[in-house]
Amino acid sequence: MMKFELKLFSYYFLLLSIVFISPSCKKDLEDEKTYSNNSAIESFLNSNKLSYTKEDGIYIHVNVPVYNYQIASGDTVTFWYVAYTLNGLVFDTNIKSVAKDFDLDTNVRSFLPVKVIAGSGNLIEGVDKGLLFLKDKENALILFPSSLGYEGNAIGPIPIWSPLAYNIEIISVNGKSIQSEKNFIESLNLISNGYTSDTSGLYIKNITLGTISTTPSLNNTIYGQVKGTLPDGTVFDNKGAQSFILSKSDLPEGVKLGFLLTNNGGENSLVLPSYLGFGNKGNGTIKPYQTLYYDIKIDSIK
């Protein structure tokens, strides 16, 4: 694990959370700067034609989409990062080649993956919060206003009230709930029981082949059936024959992927890791990190 040291003569500590004493009247100024920063961030994203979502004050652009576990508070996370201002000033990284390219001091940096407990508050607030919207193995750009960064403090080469951008590549994510589900899925011996594993992590078993090589697209109208079951046999979803368009459906991501792998007239059984179902939050009926079973069938495709 990287050992962080707070050295005032270097920029090595720029990823760490820093607490500054601020006057009580700072709130109005901070709100004004946040509004200005957010406008600058959106202009940056739009001018670079980067799609994005905004969650809890954090802007997220996914560079490399993945199907995988979303990071939750308490998970152990390791990652690479490159940090820069919106005008392209790279001021910190743990990637040696990048540090050399941008003439950063390689003597005061440890070029090892950062390893932290997510949500622990040990990083600057924007990164600490931003990690919680990323997934294992995901490569993404997170951007946030100065209120979640260094506020009205000039840190090294970073001007006061600067919005910041961090390109982050998640190396690994682990936690008790993730490991518990992985162990459960392994105990099912799905491959031995006739399932194959898709690159997304979806397990699929063919029941009825249907018309070979005639599969739907996201925008086709499908006439089909869906039945969802918990591992203990409890049925939580049972949709009889109906029509739907996958791209407009609220079906879990793993079920949509399953339909894309099902032939017209075909029927498949699916096993969904929680990240292809209802994730680390569940949905009320479904518990967090809940592995799910689905039986799906396509009667026809229009």
Can you describe this structure in just a few lines?
This protein has helices at residues 26-47, 96-101, 125-130, 176-187, 253-260; strands at residues 53-55, 58-64, 76-85, 90-93, 114-117, 139-144, 164-174, 196-197, 203-208, 221-229, 235-245, 267-272, 292-301. The protein is α+β, with helices and mostly antiparallel strands.
Number of helices: 5
By secondary-structure content and strand pairing, the structural class works out as alpha+beta
Beta fraction: 25-35%
Say what the CATH topology of the largest domain is: Chitinase A, domain 3
Low-pLDDT residue intervals, each spanning 5 or more residues: 1-13
Overall number of strands: 13
What is the CATH C-level name of the largest domain? Alpha Beta
**Can you give the mean pLDDT?**
91
Rg over CA atoms, rounded to whole Å, is 23 Å
- Note the main sheet: 7 strands, antiparallel
Our measurement of the CA-to-CA distance between the termini, rounded to an integer number of angstroms, reads 54 Å
Q: Describe the global form.
A: elongated
Helix content, binned percent:
10-25%
CATH architecture label name of the largest domain: Roll
> Could you say how many structural domains there are in total?
2
Order of helices and strands: HEEEEHEHEEHEEEEHEE
